Amino acid sequence: MRTLIIEDEHGLAAAIADGLAAEGFVADVAHDGPDGLWRALQEPYDVIVLDIMLPGLSGYEVLKRLRHARVWTPVLMLTAKDGEYDEADALDLGADDYLSKPFSFVVLVARLRALLRRGAPARPAVLQAGDLSVDPARRRCHRGEHDIELTAREFALLEYLVRHADDVVGKTDILTHVWDEHFDGDLNIVEVYIGYLRRKIDAPFDRHTIETVRGAGYRLSSGAG
């Protein structure tokens, strides 16, 4: 199994490579972000071990560019100790797993074997509603050829609506799936964010994508007109 290790601590990278070799892996090593990115784009690896803190390009940027290039090789990211935000960011960007430093080599091997059993995921589908497209993997939204910049919450709301195109979804359902099932704030927050979306995906294009269904909720047209 061919593995790419992108880790700037030379001693740690060598130890991981030697340990993986003893477990039957073939391991290549890169010590900075640009070299790691180039190798990952040029060579067919089965799995990548990627540190976050790298010279040249951060692990986040390497991962972001790989997924943007539609390279779906499974990635295990090495994060800082107790770095829960590191872990969340890594998963949001498309990492398949993470491991906090310092880590057990036995656990690292087990995690890598689990990723190899799962294999590279299929290319995520781009959701379509007319000429409105939502790409969950790349976190991008387009209306025809026009990029639409959305906040994380706006994107999550739009993705939920597109996944339920032509269905009426209530405010409670939206809050549960886009905010949190224990959200106890004002239900009107949904109306506020629907307004934000309309100003970004509809108003500039003279469209009326999201319909308000009085007393029931909202419905996004699959024709997105």
Describe this structure in words.
- The protein is an alpha/beta fold and 225 residues long.
- It has two domains: 2-118, Rossmann fold (3-Layer(aba) Sandwich); 127-220, Arc Repressor Mutant, subunit A, CATH 1.10.10.10.
- It has eight helices and twelve strands.
- It has helices at residues 10-22, 33-42, 59-68, 84-93, 105-118, 152-163, 171-179, 188-202; strands at 2-6, 26-30, 47-51, 75-79, 97-100, 127-129, 132-135, 140-143, 146-148, 168-169, 210-213, 217-220.
- The strands form three sheets. It has a five-stranded parallel β-sheet with strand order 2-1-3-4-5, sandwiched between helices. The protein has a four-stranded antiparallel β-sheet with strand order 6-7-8-9, with helices on one face. The chain has a three-stranded antiparallel β-sheet with strand order 10-12-11.
- Helix 2 (33-42) runs parallel beside helix 3 (59-68), helix 6 crosses helix 7 and helix 6 (152-163) crosses helix 8 (188-202).
- The longest helix is centred in the last third of the chain and has 15 residues, at 188-202.
